[in-house]
Amino acid sequence: MEKKKFYITTPIYYPSDKLHIGHTYCTVATDAMARYKRLTGCDVMFLTGTDEHGQKIEDKASKAGCTPKEFVDNIVEGEHGVLDLWKLMNISNDRFIRTTDDYHVAAVQKIFKKMYDKGDIYKGTYKGKYCKPCESFWTESQLVDGKCPDCGREVLDAEEEAYFFRLSKYADRVQHLLEDTDFLQPRSRVNEMVNNFIKPGLEDLCVSRTSFSWGVPVDFDPGHVVYVWVDALFNYTTALGLFNDRYHDYDHYWPADVHFVGKEIVRFHSIIWPAMLMSMEMPLPKHVFGHGWLLLDGGKMSKSKGNVVDPYILAEKFGVDALRFFLMRTFPFGSDGNFSNELLIQTINVDLANDLGNLLSRTTAMVGKYFGGTLPEGCRTCAEPEPCDKELCAMASALRSAYETAMESFAPHTALAEVFKVIQRANKYIDETAPWALAKDMEHNGARLAHVLYNLLEATRICGILLSPFMPDSAEKMFAQIGADASVQTWESAAQWGSLTETAVVTKGENLFPRIDAEKALAELEALEAEARKAALPAMEFEPFTPESVDFDTFCKSDFRVVKVKACEAVKKSTKLLKFTLDDGSGVDRQILSGVHAYYEPEDLVGKTLVAIVNLPPRKMMGQESCGMLLSAVHTERGEEKLHLMMLDDAIPAGAKLC
Ligand code: ME8
């Protein structure tokens, strides 16, 4: 029988900065969904990639002093880049598209031309508002308090000759799609789209730019580049081979079964994308699912706000599977969720260390201790099952179906909650059956004990299968410990209680989910995050040069002299100031106060030869007089200010004038 196909995508990411845990969230969800579908026997195509054009990237590259292509290459392919991150997170995408790939660029040109030839793209003048960070055009009526409705930032006035897409022509069909079908999910997002964007009147969309060049050139009108969102959205089809020879499975996989996207890009996916597909006379994707954001301290985690969490740090500290699990278990997929390290640790400790870890380690340890690692034949059945046996068996047998319902409605958090109900029931079953008590009289209770342990292995096996899309490596280790071979790791066997061979070889292996000492881990994380933040700062920064010039005569009025430090002490009640007694060659001691205590200990400065400007008017600081100023050099290193007093050769006498 031909396998059912399933085509799922993530948004393609902007490689304008390194990705953070918010980006990881969507990709992990898509990966879990793709793995689930493969488990059920589907022929899955899972696409992700990078969206590499647009003004934002062009600007970033020019700031970084490289070409846009060099810039994106580094973020996509470089160390800790996009590809590295997906490898680390065990993402099983079947394909990866970069919108700078030649085949995509050529295909987008053909797509643009096709819509133009049809009359759905026409030339006009663009007058309106443009949000640079979002690369979005807005009409006056769409702005919120005069600002970008997506990110809340200032928008710019823009006017230029441009091509437009006849979005207005498709308004009714799109409205029908949103209101009368289950195309857009969760349902709560439909009203927002219809009321905020369609009902006020869908205006035609500006789909070309002339003010920058980093984009797909409009081949029939040099100087224009295709609007980055048109280029980006069609990735879902060019990556299958639409209008190119690189791939050949467009007819097989298109239309997509679902696009997973963050809520702020639902508008592009549920209004603009279907309208363009209608224009192209192509089938529409079956669903768009708009997930919520990971928030940090109540606000969206985003690089431009500087409040991002580094997935590398978390994966290294807690393990990839624990991190994947946390993201999917904790936050309902359609809603926003507040990320915190405390919550992450708590989830790992409660669900993984306590519930799942305990079930696995207690079960495997008892099979080892009481039966040498292999249960006796006949343990699958029991002449007189007890109510708790029946309940555990019934719950575990029904689990697959509840899980499937949740996964099919894009609710991975609900699917996991169902699995954990069974895990918790199994742990309770251990307490109810008290295997350690049964083991005291093996002659009478041996068969019962073997049956209890078999039931626990079965519950663990079924949960392991259903956890495998979320924690692929851990599930494999669980199977190895309970002796479940490939034939009983299948989707079919997840609904078949009693599939595990009675005499499977059980081994208590490593503790898969060790308990985390929260206080210690939080302190370590804080230190690691601070280090990472510091490492992300520029290595060296210098004050910009003063643009204003100073005339020579004015400069010559400054009297710089060589001075020798006779004495130096900290100024009482000041953390910064040191009091210097200086020989300036005049025969009378000079006192200068200088804020250098953070950099020098006073005793280390005695005897040093420094430079001071001596004709500044005296100033009082902390009640003491300061007659002049010591010269120093300053720069910033990884965000930290560094200061060096100017020290001269000791052979130069005090009082010598610098000129
Ligand atoms: O939007 N929580 O790219 P992108 C959850 N190139 N999801 C988050 C998040 C957070 N804090 N921050 C970002 C783009 N995301 C376009 C897509 S598709 C044809 C083009 C999600 O790198 C965000 O919601 O800015 C989006 O779905 C994805 O990361 C990529 O964001």
Structural description of this entry:
The mean pLDDT is 94. A hairpin with a 2-residue loop joins strand 24 (632-637) and strand 25 (640-645). The strands form seven sheets. The chain has a six-stranded parallel sheet, with helices on both faces. Strands 17, 18, 19, 20, 23 and 26 form a six-stranded antiparallel sheet that branches. Strands 5-4-6-8 form a four-stranded antiparallel sheet. Helix content is 42%, strand content 18%. The protein is α+β, with helices and mostly antiparallel strands and 659 residues long. It starts with a strand and ends with a strand. Ligand ME8 binds next to helix 1, helix 8 and strand 11. Ligand ME8 is lined by residues 11-14, 22-23, 25-26, 51, 232-233, 235, 261-262, 264-265, 293-294, 300-302.
Radius of gyration: 33 Å
What sort of overall outline do the alpha carbons produce when their principal axes are compared? flat
Q: How would a crystallographer describe the biggest sheet?
A: 6 strands, parallel
**Stretches with pLDDT under 50, minimum 5 residues:** none
Helical proportion, percent range = 40-55%
Q: What amount of the residues lies in strands?
A: 15-25%
Task: Give the integer mean of the pLDDT values.
Answer: 94
The strand order across the widest sheet is: 3-2-1-11-12-7
- Which ligands does the model contain, each kind named once? ligand ME8
Give the beta-strand count: 26
Task: Please work out how many helical segments DSSP would assign.
Answer: 22
| Separation, N- and C-terminal Cα atoms | 92 Å
Return the structural class. Answer: alpha+beta
